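Recap quiz, item 2
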Amino acid sequence: MTHQPGLPAYDDPRRFPPRVWQAVELSRANRFPLACIPEVGRLLQICARGAGRICELGTAYGVGSAWIDSGMRSGAILVTVEHDPARASAAAELFADSPAIEVLSGDWSLALDRGPFSLLFSDSGIKRAAGDPEKLLPLLDPGGLIVLDDFTPGYGQDDPARTVWFENRNYRAIEVPLTLDASVILATKRAAAVRGGRRGSRSERERG
Ligand SMILES: C[S@@+](CC[C@H](N)C(=O)[O-])C[C@H]1O[C@@H](n2cnc3c(N)ncnc32)[C@H](O)[C@@H]1O
């Protein structure tokens, strides 16, 4: 498991959407390297295209939000939540001219009043521990997609940070490598999701 600082990978502004580059420069000016890597950004851009209501937990200086924004279709909205007031304020200023993007300052749980969403990028730390998948359930529509980054390929199937997703009856989950040393977990909320999702039977899991 790594927290790979994504910022060094942003090397040439011509390779990135202009607003992504602005967010990268804002992160650099504030010496905050923990932005999503470009490969995660491109995945978010693709996923955003098919989503109507989108949420990000952990805005930082807006790099992930800007990637989502670059893929959003007309009429889609993004709610992004940041705990650190200075980061939230800087990100709100970055997106001040985008009425479809709302930056909330405070704990991720503020998003509970705005859900459910069809796409969720959970990047505030709520993603690896037992119980985290259940905390996020109310934020997702049935069939909604969640993107979880900062995984490292090759850990095997008995890593607790993965099994909380793979063995949870409320989600279908898969790990997708994006680079040699970075992978994401993608999970969709099953239609019959219930709180307290212990591992279901094999036939339950196969039915979806
Ligand atoms: C890895 S950074 C987010 C990077 C950003 N999503 C991107 O792709 O550029 C994690 C952020 O989550 C924020 N955070 C941590 N705990 C939080 C909480 N309980 N609620 C909201 N945000 C939180 C941190 O302040 C930090 O800015």
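Residues 92 and 103 are 5 Å apart (CA to CA).
The longest strand covers residues 140-151.
End of item.
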